[in-house]
UniProtKB/TrEMBL annotation:
Its EC number is 5.3.1.24. Pathway: Amino-acid biosynthesis; L-tryptophan biosynthesis; L-tryptophan from chorismate: step 3/5. It catalyses: N-(5-phospho-beta-D-ribosyl)anthranilate = 1-(2-carboxyphenylamino)-1-deoxy-D-ribulose 5-phosphate. This is N-(5'-phosphoribosyl)anthranilate isomerase. SUPFAM superfamilies: Ribulose-phoshate binding barrel (SSF51366). It is an enzyme of class 5 (isomerase). The lineage of its organism: Archaea, Methanobacteriati, Thermoplasmatota, Thermoplasmata, Methanomassiliicoccales. It comes from Methanomethylophilus alvi (strain Mx1201). Transmembrane segments: none annotated. PANTHER family: N-(5'-PHOSPHORIBOSYL)ANTHRANILATE ISOMERASE. The keyword DNA repair does not apply.
Length: 202
């Protein structure tokens, strides 16, 4: 079964929707300055309201590794999604500070980005187009990646089925595609999960 990550959870109401619809992962944007940013303290509070089994993920952009490690170690998050320019040296420093799960995100605009993902030392990799822009990248660039990956970027209930059938990702990740007027939309979340399960069944 394809796993599902809903990102950009920022209100108690959103957590309520997540607990009803039950994706595998719930993402909190902990990088400062984005529309969906929440503080570490608020992420901790929201994460504690998640039903058991829904894994909290923190999204960071070039955050000092000590800060990322602290939130993994204190249980605020279980996975750190690194969405900036973090390189192998950064990953190695972070791995010295924590045994928490690391997911490196690659913004795909060339085959080189996909090749970098294939040999990355992080536990998990994500292929995306940007930082929650609602836009897809050219999926044909990702053919032959050679390892499991999370697929993100512009996924919504209308295209996630095609994405699964064509790309066979381990997990699909969405934020803009389950929002209306900038806020999480319960019906779109439900429709997204339904579209994923239907593609899995075909
Ligand atoms: O969503 C954000 O604001 C964000 C900020 C900083 C880094 C990453 C961010 N979002 C990530 O992008 C994917 C895809 O988003 P979308 O579906 O295209 O809107 C999202 O799930 C986050 O992982």
């Amino acid at each position: 079964m394809t796993r599902i990550k809903f990102c950009g959870i920022r209100r108690e109401e959103d957590v309520g929707y997540v607990n009803l619809v039950r994706p595998d992962y719930a993402g909190f944007v902990l990088a400062p300055g984005f529309r969906r940013t929440v503080s570490a303290q608020e992420a901790g509070r929201l994460s504690s309201l998640l039903d058991e089994g829904i894994v909290p993920v923190g999204v960071f952009v070039d955050e000092p590794p000590e800060n990322v490690a602290r939130l993994l170690e204190d249980g605020t998050i279980s996975i750190a999604q690194l969405h900036g320019m973090e390189d192998e040296e950064y990953l190695s420093r972070l791995m010295d500070l924590t045994s928490g799960t690391l997911m490196k995100c690659f913004r795909v605009s060339s085959r080189g980005d996909v090749e970098a993902a294939s040999c990355c030392s992080a536990d998990l990799v994500m292929l995306d187009s940007g930082t929650g822009t609602g836009k897809a990248f050219d999926w044909s660039l990702a053919e032959g990646l050679g390892r499991d990956f999370f697929l993100a970027g512009g996924l919504d209930p209308s295209n996630v089925g095609e994405a699964i059938k064509r790309m066979h990702p381990t997990a699909v990740d969405t934020s803009s595609g389950i929002e209306t007027d900038g806020f999480k939309d319960y019906e779109k979340m439900e429709a997204f999960v339904k579209a994923v399960r239907s593609a899995d069944g075909e």
